[in-house]
Amino acid sequence: MEHLTPEMMLTAYSIGLFPMAPDSERDELDWYDPDPRGILPLDDFHLPRRLRRTVLSDRFTVTTDQAFEDVMKACAAPASGREETWINGGILRLFAELHRMGYAHSVEVWQSGVLVGGLYGVALGRAFFGESMFSRVTDASKTALVHLVARLRLWGFTVLDTQFGTEHLARFGGVEIPAASYKEKLALAVSAPRCWRGMENEKEVWNAEIRTMGT
Question: What is the pLDDT of residues 99-144, one digit of tens each?
Fold first, then answer.
């Protein structure tokens, strides 16, 4: 892994590959190219009414790119039902560098000033590659996902890659599509100019978009 550079990581993402370590203790990296591929269609995002009320309430404060490495470390920490992690030291270092370069991003969820949930991933053109999320209180990671989708929709993203399809993501509209179809969408998305923008303190903008999401 010592020869892997952030630039090589970006090239891999642009052609549909993503990395995972066998476990957190080994300094190794495996590359994945699943078929079918999991995506979350941004225009068909399903937002349950109860969760919409939570997200639009004052229960949480949501930010982006304010605590990237803290989010990654929280995603890497063992949790109930996820005692093992695929995030090792090498992945932490590479993604921290991608963040400094403006390609890796995080969504943070705070409660009373404490980080209680979040997610991170990579943005290339109009594609966002979701990597991992964590939650320390009920609905924190779901709130991060809703806010991510709101931002991607407003900024003109066309692909939200979830790597694999899961029952959890299916509740929000997640689907699996053939890898060939995914890569066609991906090629168009990554050829676009960089779309991620830093628009903090725009709570009403995000909330207005969240209100448009279907149930």
Answer: 999 999 999 999 999 999 999 999 999 999 999 999 999 999 999 9
pLDDT at 7: 95
User: What's the pLDDT tens digit per position in 20-48?
Assistant: 877 656 667 889 999 999 999 999 999 99
- Residue 1, in any domain of the structure: no
Q: What is the CATH number of the domain that holds 19?
A: 3.40.630.70
DSSP code per residue over the chain? -TT--HHHHHHHHHTT-EEE-S-SSS---EEE--SSEEE--GGG-B--HHHHHHHHSSS-EEEESSSHHHHHHHHHS-BTTB-S-S--HHHHHHHHHHHHTT-EEEEEEEETTEEEEEEEEEEETTEEEEEEEEESSTTHHHHHHHHHHHHHHHTT--EEEEES--HHHHTTT-EEE-HHHHHHHHHHHHTSPP------S-HHHHHHHHHTSB-
Number of domains in the chain: 1
The residue segments making up the domain with residue 53 are 6-211
- Taking the model in full, what pTM does it have? 0.94
